[in-house]
TrEMBL record:
It holds the Pfam family 2_5_RNA_ligase2. Keywords: Ligase. This is 2'-5' RNA ligase family protein. InterPro entries: Cyclic_Pdiesterase. SUPFAM superfamilies: LigT-like (SSF55144). One of its GO terms (molecular function) is ligase activity.
Length: 160
């Protein structure tokens, strides 16, 4: 297990929109489904997520109805209908991170509590009944160089 002093915030995601390994502002995420948010030493995070996502290939999911998440329901999201491949990707990533001692954020929203969704971002959104392609899976650094205003995909699958 990694020393707690080595922990760093990461998230494993599956992107709906095209993405590259370049940083973006925390309020300018490409549309995505979050798989697992966690803290772990950078080397261990890459090891865990690489093992879980190395066989990722693009696949389609169906968008469900909208819901309100977050504090007082202030975050509008489009839920994703149950999808066995997405659930398996979440479980595999969760297990890999946990096996290396990662601290899972919001554990009640993982495993059986996993409610996959795509956050509505201004006028960028998906719509109920739409089939969307999960193009790329990624490990995203939530505070590159210690700056939590930015996000940086540090690894992408399938590899470009």
């Amino acid at each position: 297990m990694d020393d707690l002093g080595d922990s760093h915030p990461f998230v494993a995601v599956a992107f709906v929109e095209p993405v590259a390994a370049m940083r973006f502002g925390k309020r300018h995420w490409p549309l995505h489904v979050t798989l697992v948010r966690f803290d772990l030493a950078p080397e261990a995070a890459l090891e865990a997520v690489s093992g879980a996502l190395s066989s990722f290939h693009p696949f389609r999911i169906r968008v469900g109805h909208d819901a309100d998440f977050g504090y007082r329901g202030r975050v509008r999201v489009s839920l994703v209908e149950h999808d066995a491949a997405l659930a398996a990707l979440h479980e595999r990533t969760l297990a890999a991170v946990a096996s290396l001692g990662g601290r899972i954020h919001s554990p009640h929203h993982t495993g059986t509590g996993f409610r996959p969704h795509i956050t509505v971002t201004g006028d960028r959104r998906v719509h109920e009944g739409e089939d969307v392609l999960l193009r790329t899976a990624a490990l995203v650094d939530m505070a590159p160089d210690g700056d939590s205003e930015w996000r940086l995909p540090v690894a992408l699958w399938p590899r470009p």
